Amino acid sequence: MTTTPTQSRPGPLGRLAGVAFRHRWRVLLGWAAALAVAAGLTAAFGGDYEVDYSSPGSDSQQAQRLLLDGFPAQAGEPVDVVVRSDEPVTDPGVQADVTVLLDELRTLPHVVAVDDPYTAAGGLAPDGQTLVARLSLDVDAPEDMPVEDTERLLAAAEEASRPGLEVALGGDAIRLAESGEFGGEMVGLVAAAVILLVTFGTVVAAGLPIGVAVAGLAVSSTLAGLVAAVMDVPDWAPILASLMGIALGIDYVLLMVTRFREWRAAGLDPERAAVATLDTAGRAVMVAGSTVMVSMFGLFAMGLSFMRGAAVVTMVAVLVVMAAAATLFPALLGFFGHRIERWRLPVGRRRGTVAVAEGGHLAPSPGWLRWSRLIERRNILAVVLGGGLMLALAAPFLGARFGFPDAGNDPADHSSRQAYDLLADGFGAGANGPLLLVTSLDGDDAAAALPALSDAVAATPGVAAVLPPAVDPSGATALLTVLPETGPQDAATEDLVHALRDDVLPAAGADAGLDVHVGGVTAAAIDVNESMADGLPLLIGGVVTVSMVLLLVSFRSVVVMLTAALMNLLSVAAAYGVVALVLEGGWAGQLVGIDTETPMPAYVPVVMFAVLFGLSMDYEVFLISRMRESWMRTGDNARAIVDGLAGTGRVITAAAAIMVTVFAALVPSPDVVLKSLGVGMAAAILIDATIVRMLLVPAVMHVLGRANWWSPRWLDRRIPQLYVEGRPELFLPEREPEPALVR
């Protein structure tokens, strides 16, 4: 039976969908033109992914600036050539082999200097069987060193090795070359395609989210180069942004494809169904995307340039996804909307008669209804079990150790790891994290004070050795290299840095007027960690506050706002606990390829919070918007919760499965930072979509009852009416449809 939809004027998103549907060819050409323009601009003006990980204004940054002026070789990119011999390294035969190796390395591309370990201070280890030669490259960052040239260095070291003589190379350029290329985007797309086929059962319905996500990825990944031209962007940021774009693009369009099929089942023609989809589910998508933008914007509070770069690249990806969902998706519906059920596979939901519930939704499956009603009956038990499980997952984070993973956390078969271990065995653990003490010299008195300064530093508890002071050719800058007794990741090394800065150096340099700065990779890592720790409360407070305001305006409920913020914080805390457990290097770490105890980089929980809080809000918006739609229609809190959970359970679990697989594609990465981000975000999405959204949120809302939808009258009058759930009643046919066949 044909029905006539109620005449109504859709909102802005609905009107935009109608225009895109009717002018679909123009929309496609517009996106193709946008891709071409972005590619052209990036080719002409794109920058490299270079980043300064130092903390602005820190002591280590001041030391680095002095190094650049006075000792450019020390400030440039180094490679350590570590040799371990069964015979003393001063043996003529061993010395001849080492000399041949160093002479060959001097001839290779980008090598500008090689120290002689037999004459350079600190070149020979106390055990007499280990030596280290510093090799200086003509590049400022490891990313600038061509991988093929680094591989030639490694080949020379491997050729020089023989029984009784072990040669290994260390340094960031070596680590970068050995880590290889990694691209998890295609793995995520393939996994998402399989899940979508199982969810929808038709190639057309499954292909729409993939098509929109790929289009968004093509444009946003191209624009990342333009962002890198104007600000610092770390090399891991484009990978994170690409995965975010894929995951969000697929999730958002998954929600809208589901809603489109429901409107078709309710009797709307393809164009009207597309308009209704954008005017209902599309609003939830825009709010969800806005929460992700707010979360990423919070990274600016950290005050670190590389965090701002990572945030902007990711925000560009999210904006492109939102634009694609609002324009490209309805245009594709213009081509394929009437074929949404074509090319059905023998998997997923079978074709047949589907009951249309109130509001134009397909009636939820009996399984989701039974689950919803079980939580309604056992809501107190669900709250206790869910809350206890979340706290148990978060517990390992209490013992997390912060720091920067180094070569000591690399795979055992990598040359960088072997060089790290050889240095630690021959020279002591501190040889892998020397502290560079740098000071300006003003006059002869300052230079004469260097021996006394060196003696004071050498007498400091925790210092293993101090190399003789070095003065630059102009006599303006002095350098003391300090080897701690402990490794770069040890808490005692951090204590030593603070002791030098707070007590030893001010006292020792006061008489001669020396202003000494402590730098080097280890000191810089300590400064960055402390800077992030100072900015984290501002990040959390700002993101949570703005997100709560957005939820309050969207759902007009103080209780929904507060519970959503609490649940999202629980999700993030549980994810932190999972990452901390994996980084311990025990049975959990070995499952993902981490076999040593590894510190957690401070920016990992920071980035995770910004990303996960926004993604958690996505599922909250999807779930609560459907609940509020039922609440506005029936005024029955229990029914609204059951309807919302049963009506979105299938969509949220499918969307979560896609996000989990997309982020899990980072786990095989050889980079510990990317690996830990992948583990944390995959775990967080899994936890959030199962324990939180499918258990805790509905259980808590059942306990709270009608208070869920309360807000003060004075506040309610002042909040603008956004209708995040849309106005589905405006698109329903005049008569309630009978069970309809999905076409």
UniProtKB/TrEMBL annotation:
Localization terms from the record: Cell membrane
Membrane-topology descriptor: Multi-pass membrane protein
Native species: Jiangella rhizosphaerae
Family stated for the protein in its record: Belongs to the resistance-nodulation-cell division (RND) (TC 2.A.6) family. MmpL subfamily.
Endpoints of the signal sequence: none
Alphabetically ordered keywords of this record: Cell membrane, Membrane, Transmembrane, Transmembrane helix
Gene Ontology cellular-component annotations: plasma membrane
Pfam families, per the entry: MMPL
PANTHER family in UniProt: MEMBRANE PROTEIN MJ1562-RELATED (PTHR33406), MEMBRANE PROTEIN SCO6666-RELATED (PTHR33406:SF11)
Transmembrane segments: 25-46, 186-205, 212-230, 236-255, 284-304, 310-336, 380-399, 535-553, 560-583, 603-624, 645-667, 679-704
Entries under SUPFAM superfamilies matching the protein: Multidrug efflux transporter AcrB transmembrane domain
UniProt keyword Membrane present: yes
Protein name: MMPL family transporter
Residue ranges annotated for the Membrane transport protein MMPL domain, each copy included: 53-378, 445-713
UniProt superkingdom: Bacteria
